[in-house]
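Dear Dr. L.,

I hope this message finds you well. Following up on our conversation about the binding site, I have prepared a predicted three-dimensional model of the protein together with uridine-diphosphate-N-acetylglucosamine. For your records, I am including the exact sequence and ligand specification that went into the calculation, followed by the structure tokens. Please feel free to forward this to your student if that is useful.
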Amino acid sequence: MGERAVAAVILAAGMGTRMKSVLPKVLHPVAGLPMINHIQKALAPLDPARTVVVTSPGQDDVRAAVAPADTAVQTEALGTGHAVLAAREQLDGFDGTVLVLFGDTPLLRTETIQAMAEIMEGPEDPAVAVLGFRPKDPTLYGRLVTDADGHLEAIVEHRDCNEAQLKIGFCNAGIMGLDGRVALEFLDRIGNDNSKGEYYLTDIVAIARAAGRTCVTVEGDPEEVMGVDHRGKLAQAEAVAQRRLRDAAMAGGATLVMPETVYFSHDTVIGQDVTVEPNVVFGPGVRIHDNVHIKAFSHLEGCEVHPEAEIGPYGRLRPGAEIRTGGKIGNFVEVKKAVIEEGAKVNHLTYIGDARVGRKANIGAGTITCNYDGFFKYHTDIGAGAFIGSNTALVAPVKIGDGAIVGAGSTIARDVPADQLALTRAQQAGNDGWAARFRETQTAKKNAKK
Ligand code: UD1
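The resulting structure of the complex is given below.
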């Protein structure tokens, strides 16, 4: 880690019109996390002394999403140089490294930001470091003009390039390190005398050179620095993020039988010797411990699954579900805000919500905890070793004691003491030979009509 303090300015002004969305561009999620928060997450290990997110006026949703980071409003979008100056107050008197980042580059890794911070502290004592990359198609990017020693001389925007400059393949990714001692002074010198009439942050390189300071580059991976400004790029970023998450899960000792069919959230925690079958979706907030088996087509969010548990196929774990060691959740079972204790089984076609299912309890097919009366939610408590017969409705609030048995087809609205057999089934009636007589008379009637 570097010695010098770091301040980060993340540019996020503008709606990103090409997204065609009412949601500001930087709030579109990748792996379930808004793009702007990916940048903050990548920055966090550098422990910035201050972070300022530059927004357009009225973007309260962006402000809320980046809290507790500070925000500054750029009143008019007059260019990237102008945008950084919106953070003037927060940068005033800061003499460490100022990192300028774009809010729409969700794939940027900590290691790359770290390399930028480190080169700023290197022996060349640069005033500016620029992250460069070599895109397949450099059209639209600023070109990095370097001297014979490889030092950066200037950045020329695509539309302002001469023919020789257009041939340069090394481009500006948009991420910069600035020497905080001179950053504001140099930023103030940026003018708008260019084809777009904008204040280009990129002009700071020529300004620093004219002041006798050195400017350097760091080369980044084109995939990593990709800016997302339309839905196609959003999908590409998602694909890269998913690939990284799958690789990390496998590197950590999880088997993904068909990795490309498993969807992770940015915060999925997955243990060792976990097997994930095809077509499993992890929403936000999932923690899977070691030796868990998640069968095909399961959907999990906001839940914790302890060792040796089995989920699915077609299991659905919703927020607040906790499946303890050795628990089993089978096909078409939905669990919400409920603890399934050690070794308990809920194997088929069941809804368990706002409940506790005690150790080794067995919940029969088609059991429903009726937890909601249209106004409030109520709790169901099922004791250890209880056996709930198939097609039972448990009308909460209700308590089933340890070891109790509930007969199939019951509607249980009163507490059941431990070890009791509870049944609400109507008496069965029988009429010998009735079915045969019925078939005979009906067949005769039908034949008479022909
Ligand atoms: C910028 C660079 C270009 C680089 C490219 C990489 C400049 C002048 N050019 O061009 O050299 O190759 O990024 O993608 O910097 N923004 C504001 N306020 C503004 C203008 C922009 O906050 O007034 C923010 C945008 O939200 C965006 C970022 O800055 O996240 C980049 O702006 P954009 O206009 O897309 O820059 P490019 O033209 O792509």
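In brief: The first strand starts at residue 6 and ends at 11.

With kind regards,
A. P.
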